[in-house]
């Protein structure tokens, strides 16, 4: 199988990329499988900036083509927060449970019809010595009153996608991968997957 590098250390994302790219007969390799990869500081104020920081720094370090994902949850009643700061919303230790509790507390008095939200995923694709390109996907829904479900990662236990009664964490991997922001961003990239020189085997 052709291999493609996904510049993430997030195990939940890495698992989903493996599943999503398998449909294109591509093997996604995450940074957890490579040695001596430093953490990239996410100093940007937009998803696009952070995706570019990760893709460009890892591509230059490895001298290989790289895809990075910067993603997060945007809640309308919180003016788009946690947004770019989704991973660290409740602190630097990136605890999913603490992040969820913080969001639920902030939304405690917000009624169901005002709990609208969306996940966003921005993919940055860097091929050494050429310009970085970007692909964006969304998944719309609303925030539940309590956390339910064991699948997925991050805020999945409190996110109810439009058209569903269950949270994202109650959906199987297959069901999430059919509707997720990550899936929708990869769809944008799809035609370019064929024409871009993205694969390790071509080097
Ligand atoms: O419930 C969720 N389902 C998802 O599908 C999802 N996708 C993103 N998120 C949240 O957004 C942060 C990304 O932040 P992020 O892009 O900086 O990634 P990260 O720091 O976790 O890893 P890396 O890819 O940078 O190595 C994550 O930690 C999560 O809190 C999600 N939550
Ligand atoms: Mg990060």
TrEMBL record:
Substrate binds at residues 8-13, 71, 153-156, 176, 181-182. The active site is at 70 (proton acceptor). Binds 1 Mg(2+) ion per subunit. One of its GO terms (molecular function) is ITP diphosphatase activity. GO terms for cellular component: cytosol. One of its GO terms (biological process) is nucleotide metabolic process. Keywords: Hydrolase, Magnesium, Metal-binding, Nucleotide metabolism, Nucleotide-binding. It catalyses: ITP + H2O = IMP + diphosphate + H(+); dITP + H2O = dIMP + diphosphate + H(+); XTP + H2O = XMP + diphosphate + H(+). Gene3D superfamilies: 3.90.950.10. CDD domains: HAM1. Its cofactor is Mg(2+). Mg(2+) binds at residues 41, 70. Belongs to the HAM1 NTPase family. Pyrophosphatase that catalyzes the hydrolysis of nucleoside triphosphates to their monophosphate derivatives, with a high preference for the non-canonical purine nucleotides XTP (xanthosine triphosphate), dITP (deoxyinosine triphosphate) and ITP. Seems to function as a house-cleaning enzyme that removes non-canonical purine nucleotides from the nucleotide pool, thus preventing their incorporation into DNA/RNA and avoiding chromosomal lesions. Homodimer. This is dITP/XTP pyrophosphatase.
